Amino acid sequence: MVRPHHFTVNTETAADNSFQTLSDNREDLAAKAYDEITAAAETLRSHGITVHLFEDEGTLTPDSVFPNNWFSTHAGGHVATYPMKAESRRRERRPDIIEMLKTHYRVQDVIDYSGLEPDGLFLEGTGAMVLDHMDRVAYAVRSDRTDPIALERFSTHFNFEPMAFEACDSTGIPIYHTNVLMCIGTDFAMIGTEMIKDPGRRDELVGRLARFGRRIIDLSETQIGQFAGNALELQSPDGRILALSTTAFNALDAGQRAAIEESARLVALDIPTIERAGGSVRCTLAGIHLTPR
């Protein structure tokens, strides 16, 4: 996780992120966002989750609180860094975070895709892709931030089957990142099926997600707009938890919560200020799939 000291809503990314809410009071946002990440990290630690918390004291990286977009880690000791669409987001890449991973975990290689940026080929990490580690599928909504060529390269390197598809809201605005639309857990998958307009592709995706007996929890467009799909299953010493925001938790109905809690405890993190930047809990978490040293 990255704790921002000068958080603000990034105007450069607002053009294709309909989840953002702009604000003029930057100082107030910064203090609140700092406190929200501090509390979120403490809550996760209280549930037995190891959190590596980095500070961002810079003023040129308004979205640094969302590190999952610029790097990801993978079993076998692999790390990937990604090509970002917005120039301000390219400045988020931090060698010190990669060095920390190498120090504390077994890292065999780092594959850097950022060289695709001059060609306009973007793939914004586990925002652009939702990875099914059991079935080895990389689900990806097509957008300016998810290029099919970059997706194919990643999938070849990391042994995933790419499944790209179109999704948009009821006004026709495309979904900017796949991880606001869907979340894949061990025993369940949450997905906003009504936003996948092609019925055949929708059925194919749902069938594939249910392949290992997962329960499909269908999310409405309203729930997607409240970040109900932007959650991440984590492993604690006492079992699995699903980290999601208070906004997302309140958006779920009793039946959906009960379905999730059959296999994972719901842990709600209160980050309403950060959500104004167009991302929620899943975006703030860069998961570690590496073996500790």
TrEMBL record:
Entries under Pfam families matching the protein: DDAH_eukar
Recorded superkingdom: Bacteria
Signal peptide start-end: none
Listed Gene3D superfamilies: L-arginine/glycine Amidinotransferase, Chain A
Entries under InterPro entries matching the protein: Amdntrnsf_FN0238
NCBIfam families noted in UniProt: citrull_CtlX (NF046062)
Name of the protein in its database record: Amidinotransferase
